[in-house]
Write a structure and sequence with these properties.
The complex is a heterodimer.
Chain A lengths: L3 E10 L3 H12 L4 E5 L15 E2 L10 H11 L6 H21 L13 E9 L4 E7 L5 H15 L3 E4 L1 E8 L5 E8 L5 E11 L20 H8 L4 E2 L4 E8 L9 H4 L3 E3 L7 H4 L9 H16 L8 E4 L5 H7 L1 H11 L8 E10 L3 E2 L5 E6 L2 E11 L4 E2 L11 H23 L13 H12 L4 E2 H15 L3 E2 L1 H18 L2 E2 L9 H25 L8 E2 L14 H4 L1 E6 L4 E6 L18
Parallel strand pairs in A: 1-2, 1-9, 2-6, 9-17, 15-18, 19-21, 20-22
Antiparallel strand pairs in A: 3-5, 4-5, 7-8, 8-9, 10-23, 11-14, 12-13, 13-14, 16-17, 23-24
Helix pairs in contact in A: 1-4, 1-11, 2-3, 3-11, 5-15, 9-10, 13-14, 13-15, 14-15
Chain B lengths: L7 E9 L9 E9 L6 H11 L18 E4 L2 E4 L14 E4 L6 E3 L2 E2 L2 H9 L19 H5 L18 H5 L6 H12 L7 H8 L13 H5 L6 H16 L1
Parallel strand pairs in B: 1-5
Antiparallel strand pairs in B: 1-2, 3-4, 3-5, 6-7
Helix pairs in contact in B: 2-5, 5-8
Classes of the chains: A alpha/beta, B alpha+beta.
Chain lengths: ~600, ~240
């Protein structure tokens, strides 16, 4: 059959922070670049990041990248690759300074430099005490960043395809990636974007859980597309539950609140984090704080009519500080919790927030797979950056403010790698395989003709509730086992979803069904990887991993200091070693993680 | 332990139009039962869509920062995700229409091309041709404060599509959102293109079609004040002339 093919040097999928940063690299180099995005760029979920971006600028007190690196490795519970982490932390200052040059309206300190605040897990002098490392624009850092990046892209004339839904990766028989198939949401036209380099910056999949800080659009589209094209997904058992989602609504309350001095309290008013993390207290890393909160709730010290949340207390802070540094939190408290945080506590619960795993990449943003003896062989033409990718810098638990840093650093490095590869190696477009768009068309055709199928909304809720119950903050071996069976059952329902709306014009029912196709891949990867990992590490904590001398807090370095790789084909798992060797400094040695 | 949930049924009149099958737009009567966990209009709309999957609207962050779910709610522009369900009076249907003044693509989804064209026309990026310093440019906290109330715009288009001047001249009048963005760069001490920016706006239509009707201020879900920003640009033009 005939179809439209559009040729570009490079195609970027996604226009959040990572996609926009990658696009700058490509556009500025003069390559013909298309950025596909299912929402207008400034509606991407980077916009919702609040508290800041990490960089050891040292504007208010002494800091350096090596301390930042140490904190990130420790925060990752040693599952992060130390080469990628060193790279990221060393690039951080430049990444932030570039944003300032683009016009990002950072807050300032009296000497005119960028304002920095403390954040969870970021310490000075290798874990000694909290340090001011988070560069912030009030509590709207993501908004300010995303708009500045979009504006810079306008300046360099990046070509956007707005409200285009990417459907599938085009990968030929040699395993090379030659672009993506995408659909114009306004007309339902399906087009093949033929490219020498394809960069995925599709964001996370937080909507796989029932209660999430994430936007509706965070449906793991890049992960689904990669998995269907035979690319494994790495470390998908590791999901971050942010300590402070508004109870009930799930809306994020930045850790910056605790950075500015906010305190968590149980129903008795006790500052309970002092018991769990005597040094860092409320600024311990997120996995630790979330578990402490749930332990308080599980032991009956939760607040509210059902004793199912704890309090975030800002009432002792100077109201002027709150209104200046945390204005959106004040608004969110009123809008979504019905409380004025100047005078009242905010009810909060741990809420699904961030996916540490993703499409496996190296520090250049190249997607890597196992090829013979090479465990990290780049897939020609394919790059990924930001939350959809796993470099891996976050390992088993991400530190706050490292996500905005990740998307800047790896957005840029993936763009640079794509530019270099196109300039040096790829002179002409490799021909598309004859069946380039067949799989996408078959999926659309199935959806359009399905009769007596499953309801998209109900199936999605079933998946989300299953994930919430079977793969939450605390994990139980029995629940994980059952969870695998249940998620595979849900996957069967996803395979026969039915929509009533068959219109060609901006059909959001169809988009939601296609998004569910992607979410279910993430759900399977998560549940199966989590069931298999028989230890506790970072955000993955299970009941049958015991605290012993050899396995402190259930972490089993002898058997499980390795990355999981989930393959969609047959739900097969294999593993690859963690890169313990940094680029220039000594390995940060394994030790028990305390805050 | 569990208390029975106080359910409430909400009745809607919603503008519907699918050019693929409808000869002309119509108003659909539809209701949905909500529980106390459904706090915002968007929560009810998600439930409506579960009932009738053809109902089409944009939405993303559901917390008022992405600007996707702007629509006309009981005659006034606003974000569905920041509109309290409980505030709607009982017994009267909630009337939902697409943002006025832009072409309708389908149902509550409008074609925002003209809105973004106006935004692009003010060159919405920092212009500074000085050699780049190795570190950040310095800016005093006071100078940075000048950007407050300007940079927070989420480009939802509530303001611009509530402005009669934009309705009459969408191709010529920049509109409140675009002008707010223009002043955001004029007010930035790091930007060096103030004169060019003022030149770009010194025009009977682009800026001066603002007649301070102030609908923009009235509807902005972020509490911003485009009229004030427009007033400052006008003032600068006057000062420049004398």
């Amino acid at each position: 059959m005939t179809y439209t093919v559009r040729k570009f040097d490079a195609v970027v999928v996604g226009a959040g922070g990572a996609g926009l940063r990658a696009a700058l690299q490509l556009s500025e180099s003069g390559l013909k670049t298309a950025v596909l995005t299912k929402v207008f760029p400034t509606r991407s979920h980077t916009v919702a990041a609040q508290g800041g971006v990490a960089a050891s600028l040292g504007n208010s007190e002494e800091d350096n990248w090596h301390w930042h690196m140490y904190d990130t490795v420790k925060g990752s519970d040693w599952l992060g690759d130390q080469d990628a982490i060193e790279f990221m932390c060393r690039q951080a200052n430049q990444a932030v300074v570039e944003l300032e040059h683009y016009g990002m309206p950072f807050d300032r300190v009296d000497n005119g430099k960028i304002y920095q605040r403390p954040f969870g897990g970021h310490m000075s002098n290798f874990g000694e005490k909290p340090v001011r490392r988070s560069c912030a624009a009030a509590d709207r850092t993501g908004h300010a960043m995303l708009h500045a990046l979009y504006q810079r892209n306008i300046k360099v004339n990046t070509q956007f395809f707005v409200e285009w839904q990417a459907l599938d990766l085009i990968r030929d028989a040699d395993g090379e990636v030659l672009g993506v198939v995408a659909m114009d949401m306004e007309t339902s036209e399906v087009v093949a974007f033929h490219a020498k380099a394809t960069i995925f910056a599709t964001g996370g999949a937080g909507r796989v859980y029932y209660s999430s800080t994430n936007a509706f659009i965070n449906t793991g589209d890049g992960l689904g597309m990669a998995a269907r094209a035979g690319i494994p997904l790495e470390d998908m058992e590791f999901w971050q539950f942010h300590p402070t989602g508004v109870a009930g609504a799930g809306v994020l309350i930045t850790e910056g609140v605790r950075g500015e001095g906010g305190i968590l309290r149980n129903a008795d008013g006790e500052r309970f984090m002092e018991r769990y993390a005597p040094n860092a207290k409320d600024l311990a890393s997120r996995d630790v704080v979330s578990r402490s909160m749930l332990t308080e709730i599980n032991e009956g010290r939760g607040a509210g009519p059902y004793k199912d949340y704890v309090y975030l207390d800002l009432t002792h802070l100077d109201p002027q500080v709150i209104l200046k540094r945390l204005p959106s939190i004040h608004e969110i408290g009123i809008q979504f919790a019905g409380v004025d945080c100047l005078k009242e506590y905010i009810p909060v619960v741990p809420t699904c927030h961030y996916q540490m795993g993703g499409i496996p990449t190296n520090r250049f943003g190249q997607v890597v797979v196992t090829k013979g003896d090479d465990l990290s062989s780049p897939v020609p033409g394919f790059y990924a950056a930001g939350e959809c990718a796993c470099a891996s810098v976050h390992g088993a638990n991400r530190l706050g403010t490292n996500s905005l840093l990740d998307l800047l650093v790896f957005g840029k490095s993936s763009g640079e790698a794509a530019v270099a590869s196109i300039r040096e190696n790829v002179k002409a477009h490799k021909p598309l395989p004859v069946d380039a768009i067949e799989k996408s068309l078959a999926r659309l055709d199935r959806l359009n003709t399905q009769k007596g199928g499953s309801n998209v909304h109900e199936t999605r809720v079933l998946m989300q509730r299953t994930m919430q119950k079977h793969a939450g903050v605390f994990r139980f071996s029995q629940l994980l086992k059952e969870g695998v069976d249940k998620i595979l059952e849900v996957a069967q329902a996803v395979a026969c979803t039915e929509i009533q709306d068959k219109s060609k014009v901006f059909n959001t029912a169809r988009i939601e069904a296609l998004e569910l196709d992607n979410l279910i891949e993430v759900a399977k990867a998560t549940m199966i990887s989590a069931e298999a990992r028989k230890e506790s590490r970072g955000a993955h904590v299970r009941d049958d991993a015991h605290d012993t001398l050899e396995t402190p807090d259930g972490r089993d370095d002898k058997n499980w200091l390795k990355h999981t790789l989930w393959h969609r084909d047959g739900n097969r798992l294999d593993y690859k070693p963690v890169q313990m060797k940094p680029l220039s400094v000594a390995t940060i040695d394994l030790k028990k993680r305390t805050y | 332990m569990t208390t029975p949930l106080a359910m409430r049924t909400y009745h809607f009149k919603i503008y519907r139009y699918d050019p693929d099958k409808d000869a002309k737009p119509y108003m659909q009567d539809i209701s949905v039962e909500c529980d106390p966990m459904d706090k915002k209009l968007l929560d009810a709309m998600v439930k409506l869509k579960a009932k009738d999957d053809s109902l089409s609207f944009r939405r993303s962050c559901r917390e008022g920062v992405c600007g996707s779910d702007a629509m006309n709610i009981n005659g006034k522009n606003g974000l569905a995700c920041l509109t309290d369900l409980a505030a709607f009076p009982e017994g009267k249907p909630i009337v939902l229409r697409p943002l006025p003044g832009l072409p309708v693509v389908r149902d509550l989804i409008v074609d925002m091309t003209q809105f973004f064209k106006q935004y692009l026309s003010i060159k919405p990026y920092l212009v500074n041709d000085d050699p780049l310093p190795e570190r950040e440019r310095l800016q005093s906290p006071e100078d940075r404060e000048e950007l407050n109330g300007l940079y927070e715009c989420i480009m939802c288009a509530c303001c611009t599509t509530a402005c009669p001047s934009f309705w009459w001249n969408p191709d010529k009048f920049v509109g409140p959102a675009g002008l707010l963005a223009a002043y955001r760069f004029i007010a930035d001490t790091r930007d060096q293109a103030t004169n060019e920016r003022l030149d770009n706006l010194e025009d009977p239509y682009r800026l001066f079609r603002c007649h301070t009707i102030m609908n923009c201020v009235d509807v902005c879900p972020k509490g911003l004040n485009p009229t004030k920003a427009i007033g400052k640009i006008k003032e600068m033009l006057v000062q420049r002339a004398v």
